[in-house]
Design goal:
mainly alpha; 8 helices; 80% helix; YjdF-like; membrane
Amino acid sequence: MKRNLLLWLSGLYSFTMLCLFIYYIALGQTSHWTVALGGAIVSALPLLFLKADHLPFSSFLIVGYYILLLSTIGLGTLARWYYHYSWWDTSLHVYGGFFTVFLAAALYDWLLQGTAQAKRMRWVRRSYVLAISVAITVIWEVYEFLGDLTITHTMQRGGNKDTMEDVIAGVCGALVALCFEWRARRN
């Protein structure tokens, strides 16, 4: 079921992004065709886990990943929602922080499945999950900075203020998700 969902969503999203890639190349819009090509590539990344005996992601995470891609690449950049809605960027950073907690938790559980450490040291797990989420938030901001230097010049419209708001939003989303995840594991 999860494998089929992953294949279907990845195929649909990749196909859409590749069509947009061709469309934007024909129009000569460099900043858009590079985004569409990147969208096709990141859409295929979860397929690397199909070789694993057990797919570490729940259906919730798989759908959440493609919602994140659609929101950031499809709606945010290509449909220009980042420009039309001032709240869009911050909302996605909150969602991204929230999402990465569950992603990091799934990867942690998958990597340490069946080991005694996985059950014994819950505080290590929480620290790891929060650290991964914060690291992904920071890496995303580096990506925005480098994107502005090389391709678009529009990713960090607010400069340092935008960067700090995005990092704070991502960390807040991660903390909220960590609380949800902690309560769910307690019950």
